[in-house]
Amino acid sequence: NNHEDPTTKTMEDFSGYPIHESHSCISNTLSALSVDAQTLQNQIDELSSLSDTPAPSVTRILYTEKDVLARRFIKNLMRLSGLSVREDAVGNIFGRWEGHEPELAAVATGSHIDAIPFSGKYDGVVGVLGAIEAINVLKRSGFKPKRAIEVILFTSEEPTRFGIGCLGSRLLAGGEALAKALKTTVDGQNISFFYAARSAGYAKDQDDLSNVFLKKGTYSAFVELHIEQGPILEEEGISIGIVTAIAAPASIKVEFEGNGGHAGAVLMPNRNDAGLAAAELALAVERHVLESGSIDSVGTVGILELHPGAINSIPSKSHLEIDTRDIDEGRRNIIIEKIRQSASTIAKNRGVRLSEFKIINQDPPALSEKSIIEAMKASSADLNLTHKLMISRAYHDSLFMARVSPMGMIFIPCYKGYSHKPEEFSSIDDISNGVKVLALTLAKLSIQ
Ligand SMILES: NC(=O)N[C@@H](O)C(=O)O
Ligand SMILES: [Mn+2]
Ligand SMILES: [Mn+2]
């Protein structure tokens, strides 16, 4: 063993990597990285067919029949890649490639396969199928990890069915409050979380989800590959985005109740219209966001429902769901307070009752780990791929994995930055570049 050789010693001190092991195996790996692009594209296309809406749109909601079929599809691919597969009580799925020092904390990667109504086939999916292919790439190159590498399929990154995003990763990160809340959580059809989970084969004999919580130090690093969901990389012709921070998301549920009544017979001065209260609040959300004076503040009313929802009946109830985000948590919280104030002012002015103003989640932003950013930058450089540092305005499971593990994210370009709609698209070349950077980054992190 060549530790006696002073020059080698310094290199090891300098890089912190055991020279012989790292550089040689990484450089060998580097030269042998080949992505099976056609197979990967076929898998993306096949998975997109497991949808409750017609192509090119994809709709795949948590614990539905299509979701269960898609989960089976992923588990098969994990097994085909020689990974040992396990699932937890809410359906987070783990595929493990054992390392030659299994007692060390593993390196993890992963994303989600659930898709909001009428969305595209790349959001989340690239980070799951791409992660499995990244392991295939490393295996093909003859690389042997020291730390185990795990691919995670996170349950319900999208908030569609039970109104809370990143349900699986929040629980992995020790979401006590969420575990408690899920005992009484129902979806829009009044189906309980546990009934739905059991119909999909999860949460068999228990509703105590504390065993989903990850033990501290389970992972030494977590890296997620994802489409940018913005136009920057495509516009600037850059291949790889290295995420330095993830914006802080929050969501609010609001309900107004008024008197309702006949659209013809009730005169305007005698109305307490819950629908107009909702409309006024929606515009107030936009105003308060713009008042922040920062381009980084955003606010969306993505759900606005009126009851009874009849053209000739004055809305007696209205339901809004508000999504507001910012990379500056303080600035976002000021917006939330302004929205709360407006809701009660509007209710008073219009003589309707503010029957609910509930903050569903109000999460802090997350910062990527410096050493992982360095590993992603070095991997991109090693692969001669242009790259830039950027922030994520969309949230991801990484936002919560950052609570229990050093975190990093790799972005790839997507067509016009489209996402959450059927026109969402990333080329297989861009996806393959992302898979290579992910593979090399996982290799570097797994020999640390
Ligand atoms: N990445 C992504 O689309 N996450 C969403 O759930 C979101 O709303 O940001
Ligand atoms: Mn999404
Ligand atoms: Mn996503």
From TrEMBL:
Family that this chain belongs to: Belongs to the peptidase M20 family.
Pathway the protein takes part in: Nitrogen metabolism; (S)-allantoin degradation; glyoxylate from (S)-ureidoglycolate: step 1/1
CDD domains: M20_bAS
Regions annotated as coiled coil: none
The protein's assembly and partners: Homodimer.
SUPFAM superfamilies: Bacterial exopeptidase dimerisation domain, Zn-dependent exopeptidases
GO terms of molecular function: hydrolase activity, acting on carbon-nitrogen (but not peptide) bonds, in linear amidines; metal ion binding; ureidoglycolate hydrolase activity
Cross-referenced InterPro entries: Amidase_Cbmase, Bact_exopeptidase_dim_dom, Peptidase_M20
EC number assigned by the record: 3.5.1.116
Cofactor(s) for this UniProt protein: Ni(2+); Mn(2+); Co(2+)
Protein name according to UniProt: Ureidoglycolate hydrolase
Compartments, record wording: Endoplasmic reticulum
One cellular component (GO) term of this entry: endoplasmic reticulum
Cited PANTHER family: ALLANTOATE DEIMINASE-RELATED
Main location: endoplasmic reticulum
Top EC category: hydrolase
Keyword annotations: Endoplasmic reticulum, Hydrolase, Manganese, Metal-binding, Purine metabolism, Signal
Reactions this protein catalyses: (S)-ureidoglycolate + H2O + 2 H(+) = glyoxylate + 2 NH4(+) + CO2
Record GO biological process: allantoin catabolic process; purine nucleobase catabolic process; ureide catabolic process
